[in-house]
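=== Structure Prediction Worksheet ===
Name of assembly: unnamed complex
Input type: mixed (protein and possibly other molecules)
Chain count: two
Listed entries:
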Amino acid sequence: MKRIVFFALASVLLLSAAAASAQNKDRRKSFSSWENYEITTEKVGVDGTKFVKVWGFGKNADAAVMAAKKNAVHACIFRGIPGNATAMATPPICSNPDALSANEDYFTNFFAAGGPYLSYITMTTDGIPSGTDKRKVKGGYKVGIYVQVMYDNLKRKLEADGIVRKLSSGF
Amino acid sequence: MKKALILAASLLLACQITGWSQAKKPVIMVVPSDSWCQRNGFVQTVNQSGTTVTMSDYARAMRENADMRTVVSAMGDFMAKNDFPIQSLEQELKRLQTEDAELSMMTGKKSGGEIEETPLERLRRSAKADIILDMDYEIHRIGPKRQVSFNLQAVDAYSSKIISGNTGVGSDSSAPMTTLLEEAVLSFKDNFLSGLQHHFDDLFANGREISITLLRYDSCPIDFEEEFEVNGQDAELAEIIEAWVADNSKEGRFNTAAKSANRIRFNQVRIPLYGKNLNGRDVAIDAEAFARPLVKMLKKAPYNLVVGSAPKGLGEVWITIGDK
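=== Predicted Assembly ===
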């Protein structure tokens, strides 16, 4: 009888551990996923730039800030930025939904740690954000930062590298 | 040495081919919308065949309204940065004025003759664009602050289709009017460019959209309902022309908008961007170049018609039968 109770308890424990591990895996996946970040337009940026608030996840606040920067550039290229009451939405630079998979090597290098994407970001907040913009979540931090993306420069770079067509191409 | 020569020759050939296969660049112009001109008093009344018509006075609007000039400059700036400079309405109107003055003064050195110009030719010399950026904005007062609401439409001048539409409201601020207008332009800039890019992508994938209008002068001995024998079958001239358009348009895409004894109009005709010139070279073509073989066909037997062809920009052509 004791043995049966012991086995039952052990299997319950094992099952719940496996479920928790799967949940953690899912969470970690969602942290690093391109599909899971929030970005909003703050106001109309100066010529050639976008002024946005973007969120990022990371094991620590520094990693979350870096992820947020990456997300801001990613949004400009692939997702577009939603508008607000006084600024129109910004369309993605790559209108082709398959652009990421079609140029996988290029973008892997572009978004690598310390990669070229960083030259298109200007932080408008110094240091690690605090208060409601820095939230402790299970498995790390969720951080919101205000950044200025050099949208026109980014577009020119992708045009020069042949990833997107120039407006005047073909004419 | 031989290898170097072959390489140089092939490079030259490649450059030439690339050069020839460039599509014709559409002319883009920012034009104040009629409602903006009306609201701001830039209108003029013109007597047209006994009827008084109110028309927008663009020349005065561009001369006297600094705000509109700011908007046009800001738009011209970002379009130029995209290698797509827009044509200035103000300068084009000035050029036409100077051209008018010069034409009226020109006389032949020996004969003393004057430059001949029909009223129709004169009318066709007016300012034209292939894509019209119809700009409208309104300034609202919110207490001590001001806010700009804007509406920009990029309209294809021939199909009258809206290529890109942008409306929005700027932030309320006590900043100078120029700042608010520049902010409005920056707000819609990327969305507008994206709409334009989408239109150009469609143009390269599916061809240019044009209109062809065929008109009959009363001096023409036959009309478009006259029957001819083609491939052993009797068919009306209108049907024969329709078949030609179907055979030559891209994937047979066109629409017959009107068909009668005296007038045929085809719209949404998709034409390839490139064709061959007289020397067999690949060149960019427009509506007139596309319709040239049709004109030639109508001139030959069994039709033997006097045919005239008049382009109306890149995307529309009028073909007349019975006279030129």
